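Troubleshooting: if your tokenizer reports a length mismatch, compare your output against this known-good record of 301 residues.
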Amino acid sequence: MLLRHLRYLLAVADHGGFTRAAEALHVSQPTLSQQIRQLEETLGVSLFDRTSRTVKPTDAGEAYIECARRVLVELEAGKRALHDVKDLSRGTLRLAMTPTFMAYLVGPLVRDYVARYPNIHLQIFELSMDDIEAGLVDDSLDIAIAFTQVRNADIESIPAFTETLGVMVGRDHPLYESQVALSAQEVAQLEFALLAPDFVTRTRIDEYFAQEQITPKVVIEVNSVSTLLEVIRHTAIATILPEPIATEDRALRKIPLLGEAPKRGAALLRRKNNYHSAASVAFMELVLGAAAGESTASVFD
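Known-good structure output:
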């Protein structure tokens, strides 16, 4: 059995047939079919059901395909390990963050990382929690900053810091100059623009409202942090986002709350039992060192 057989196997499975898989692989369809037959003969099982219009994996094929995926991921990790440079004189870091962390963390962290390791090539991705987990599992990402609630057992979650969410408004809001802490009843009277319900941040906000028995007046929902910030800057509507986002240069002001503000855990995520490059280990150490004993508002600015 050759590595080529595994790549051909996954191409057929991912493209749902031999014709499209052959086109993607730049080989002829008869050649591809012959290679898959050879693999089936070696294993002594049929990997694909060819009786229907679409080529579907058999039960045995499904199990073997998942194993093949893991093998190729491990081999790619091994290849990167061979080329890793421990002194960080060169290398690549594939970093991802969820949108709200990207809004205030990416600038300071990249600034400090580049200052220490100027020869590391950075690839930075803004992704949802689901896409981050998928990217870590298939080894298209090295490390991520996201939330502690990881669902995939193959991902390691390393607690980094606690993030506090706060009510914030723009200059056009009547509370912009106010320093008086708001009660839950007063928060309930505000009009809010919030991230859409499919954001993890929105889930935590809704939990806060339920905990405080607030029925919020949500007049605008958006699916982009940058869009939400523009809305708040140009309307007399409030929002709830991580406190460090409310800065003078963004023309946003945080309004204090009576009682405890909503909090959530932030974590560094990486794939378990995987080779971790020197560049990713250095990034992890930078984040954990900066966050140790301090708040995100004072460290990452």
